[in-house]
Fold:
Amino acid sequence: MIDNMFNISEIIAGFFTKSNTEEERARLKEWLDQSDDHLKLFANLSDYQKFEEWEALHANFEKKADWRGIHKAITGRAPIKKVYKTLAKIAAVLLIPLFLGIWIHKSNNDILLNNTVVVPKGVQHCLTLSDGSRVWLNTGTKFTYPRKFNSKKREVLLDGEAYFEVTPGLKSAFVVKAGEMDVVVVGTEFNVRAYREDKEFRITLNDGKVKVRSQNEEVILNKNQQASLTPDNELVIDRNIDASIYSAWRNHSLSYKDQTLKTITEDLERYYNVKFKFEKPELSHIRFSINVQRFNDVYKLLDLLKETGKIDYTIKRETIIIKENRPK
Amino acid sequence: MPINDKYIIDIAKGNVDSFKRFYTVLFPVLSVYAYRLVRNETEARDIVQESMIIYWEKRVQFDNVDSAKAFLYSVTRNRCLNLIRDREIEGRYFSYSQYFSERKTENNLIIENEVHAQLHRAIEMLPAQTRKIIKMSMSGMKNQTIADSLEISVNTVKTLKKAGYRYLKKMVPRIMLFLFSCLIHPF
Structure:
């Protein structure tokens, strides 16, 4: 006997809306008693965040419904093609799951309502904060900000990469907290790169002035300057760089100046949601300078790199393996 | 008003307006489901769009919501699985484990999708303030916290919450939309 799948969905939903009848409650209990699998599924469904995730996806798809397209198709005016194969080639910056996280565990409770945005691999996102500041979020980034800034300070949390255009002229300082680092600004444009999983922190200043604070030191950066945190927790300053390279990702381009393949592939893993392995560890230290529009698939870029003669690659199962270039 | 069997019969007779309503409600719900499988928004949308077109082409076969939706989930699921299989053949594999660490059976994904859709439909019926309160309450917020963040009294929160759940209890069983009984037809 196959379970009445959709009936149980209704009863589970009825549990959360507290609208089940006596009979439905008994049925639910019976279903839960049937197997561990059912218990797991129910526990999963009890996670409110998953529901909010669903709602965010749903809202996005509601906007993108194309009745006109279907109407054309069913009234016989346009032929139906296999669209998904061709559209899959088009890089689309589209879907952002929004986790509206209510943080009730905050110890000092001064930020009552925070939003956390998680930008998945392969997309980037731009949003505007309540003070008018704009933030561009790169792939694989988690960003937390209060829905409304209070008048005393503007504080946000970053794990990933973001470009900030902070509204000047406001009394309160704008603070970006990235792991152990703080960036304090009043009004300016800068790029912060702090992927926690890569244990890195780098801030590049495009305009204005910022103060960068680590655990034991503090520096001021001006336009076209950069501060990075070394593995030994030292702040290294570069006072003469071209800041635009480090924020080129906003324009969907890949820009690297003499950057190691290790860093480049870390980014590619995020943009394209793929995995890399190196045949020999030394290969990851090879440096490249690239400046191209981001391709729809990673293989086009890899082919470009292959043309330089420095590396080769193959694909095995789900992984891209970087190999030495061996002349045939 | 929710989709009921009458809509399905109208659609079978060729009523485009009824189909439009049907499409408007189901397209986003099925798209979330498809997205969970294929992990790409554009491809998910395309698959559901095609499924809806195929439904229209076979509309005369259906006379109740249950079978209509079973059909749509089935067609959508198969197209998603075909796409996943094609991707693997081409050597392009995208990791799905990003959001789901455990393997879910296909029926579980459908149940999840349906429960969320049901919840969403129910909660959408509530007036704005009550809806906010009930959602915050479901997320684990205490009444005092809800009251503080909405700048209303705790009593108001309690009252609106109670009224909200009473309303849901009255209205939810009437939602026929996701009431099915059955097997997914294999295609």
Chain B is about 70% helix and 0% strand. The CA atoms of residues 51 and 152 of chain B lie 46 Å apart. Chain B has a mean pLDDT of 82.
